[in-house]
């Protein structure tokens, strides 16, 4: 009887270990986990430059002409629900403008797809494509994230004392 209990406990322990390992794999794409797709729609009358990333993955720099759409996808965490992607948007109209926005927050977006219209005042999520209902959010402040958007490896370093 004790051997059966030990095997059951060991089996559960192994199953939980495998499950947690899959959850902790950052940057590994797998068909096992659900994916989300984000669409960025340039509603500005000028070219939109943007750079999107999360804490471990980088979608790179992109340019969208007016009226065009860009889509990208990534895996989302189904256990901890902490997936978050952010973008820096830049355009030039009379002056250079640069804004930051959390383009996908798993706890906010509640779905695997999120399409966003980029406007001068913020990003507007298309809530219902059939009716055209949108919900608009203002731009986030850049604060300390500006360096993170430049490169995954950029960190503040002090000059060595001589």
UniProtKB/TrEMBL annotation:
An annotated GO BP: rejection of self pollen
Membrane-spanning intervals of the chain: none
InterPro entries hit by this protein: Self-incomp_S1
UniProt entry keywords in alphabetical sequence: Secreted, Self-incompatibility, Signal
A Pfam family this chain is assigned to: Self-incomp_S1
Recorded GO CC terms: extracellular region
Main location: secreted
Location within or outside the cell: Secreted
Cross-referenced PANTHER family: PTHR31232, S-PROTEIN HOMOLOG 29-RELATED
Protein family per UniProt: Belongs to the plant self-incompatibility (S1) protein family.
Record-given protein name: S-protein homolog
